[in-house]
Amino acid sequence: MTGALPTRGYIRRMTPTGTCDLAIIGGGLAGGLIALAAQRAHPDRHILLIEARPALGGNHLWSFAESDIGKADRALLAPLISFGWRSYSIVMPSWQREIADPFYSIRSDRFDTALRQIMPAGAIICGRSAVSVTPVSVELDDGQHIDAGGVIDARGGAALALLDPAWRKFVGYELQLAGPHSVRRARLIEIADGDSDILGFQTMLPLEADRLFVEDVRYEPDPGLDLAEHARRIFNLAAKFGWRITDSARGHAGVIPIVMGGDFEAYWQSGGDGVAKAGVRAGLFHPVTGGSLGDAVRVAQLVASLGDWSGPALHKALHDHAAKCWARRDFYRRFARRMMREMAPGEQYRLFEALYKSDTDVIGRFHGMRLSLVDRLALSTGDGPMPLSALLPGGGG
Q: Three-state SS for 320?
């Protein structure tokens, strides 16, 4: 192609080359939020969001408590929220508790729609994969070459074995019921009598009077996902409550890492030498829950705040941010190790019990990865879930 540079609509015209200020590879949670924050902060810059699947966000339901996200960051998520509740509950075999912390969910179809409404025409490419990525260029599977001021790779995990992972597996369905259910608030954790020998739980989110989202979660050492077994537990839960399911058309499933240790620098390099990274590819997710939404918001705001989107500047900024997060999160990796390797089967759920008996603010800071030394001390004494050794240097929150 010769002459003047292509306009913002060049992607739709499928020209062989193009330029942009920022190319984001991966239109999931991390990549989509970066695109949203960057577009809002710099509407004059040309941003491209590239996703291999047909739609942004895939097929997911992401949930978070209000305390998980800093006040300054909540505005970024506001147009994406699909459902909300004033509080959530924890149900254990011998007790239950309501936690007065607003709880929200983002459904991926709303995520896709909102981003398409906000991003300019031609700024989103779906259904095409990146086959070659450098700090300043992307090659797509149809041969199109894109030159960029800088590139951020947010396509998911790299060499996760370098992080000594266990796995959080989940399968969830939106269930249409024949009649009303009795769930009045979000239930983040439901562990019934007889289930305490399995490290897992169900989550129940009431969407309408006769519609529920139910998710079955298991923590296990291997990444294999048995969809039929998860579905069986969901249908058993429905039978226990006396619900008659008439439809379960929408659902999601996944396996995400729980991190117990590892080599951060080797992992970062495994995701692409010199290329800026975000999301799971950058090692940015909660070591115990696997959740990445809070980190995704913080990285999106960081990128939006940068004046320099060149490849080297993005790599340095995002590497330094991820490295600092890794260094501060040893306490959570120790929590994950205790949960997955040190507790006897049938006792592991007591870690959740001890955590969710804590002060509401401590629970919020645990999920938001903002635990103070006092918080960690409280979780390491008395009936707390962690040994005092977790307070040794390197055990920060």
A: helix
CA angle 323, 129, 315 (to 5 degrees): 25
Half-sphere exposure of 217 (CA within 13 A, CB side): 25
Where in the chain are the domains? 17-60+106-155+270-328, 162-259, 330-391
Whether the Cβ atoms of residue 59 and residue 27 lie closer than 8 Å to each other: no
Span 162-259: which CATH code? Answer: 3.30.70
221 DSSP 8-state letter: S
**How far is C-alpha 17 from the chain's CA centre?**
33
Give the C-alpha distances (Å, rounded to integers) separating 156 from 255, 256, 281, 298, 310.
12, 10, 5, 17, 22
Least confident among 27-41, 167-181, 184-198, 243-257: 184-198
- CATH class held by domain 17-60+106-155+270-328: alpha beta
Identify the CA nearest to 122 among candidates 154, 156, 146, 149: 146
**Other Cβ atoms within 10 Å of 297 Cβ, number:** 25
Local structure of residue 249 (DSSP, 8 states)? E
Mean predicted confidence (pLDDT) in 157-173: 97
Residue 42 has pLDDT above 90, yes or no: yes
Q: Are 296 and 29 in contact (CB under 8 A)?
A: yes
Residue 2 has what pLDDT? 31
